[in-house]
Amino acid sequence: xxxxxxxxxxxxxxxxxxxxxxxxxxxxxxxxxxxxxxxxxxxxxxxxxxxxxxxxxxxxxxxxxxxxxxxxxxxxxxxxxxxxxxxxxxxxxxxxxxxxxxxxxxxxxxxxxxxxxxxxxxxxxxxxxxxxxxxxxxxxxxxxxxxxxxxxxxxxxxxxxxxxxxxxxxxx
Length: 172
Prior knowledge:
There is one protein chain. By secondary structure, the chain is mostly helical. Helix content is 57%, strand content 0%. It has helices spanning 8-28, 46-65, 74-79, 85-103, 108-112, 126-152. α1 (8-28) packs parallel to α6 (126-152) and α2 runs parallel beside α4 (85-103).
């Protein structure tokens, strides 16, 4: 039995929803310096996680699927400090543009094909890897939310992953 394929439109909507949530999370830090504050027991502040998410998607979707020419520096995603909020938001905007451009061009054949790069030593189908990238993004968004709350002592949420943002959402 062949595995079910997650529709590309759904994966694209979720990735874009999560990237807009990333913008909201970065904007919700009251002080730019808090993006870079290291909390005991947590090695990656929100700023580094945001850089990592942009680098990850620009690499796998932009460069590998879209041949954008993006060159990833994964080590810098975790070592850079004090990148401005404006620069992080610009990187998120660029990532949104890249994800939108590449995924709007993919077809069913590309989704069923193997992803053009082995990931973690494994070959996987493109559709399944795109779903994995959406999960990876959501995972780190939760980390950013907790980091922001710990560093700012703010209990407020940035309305992460709202169901209302799903295309089929409607009131009963």
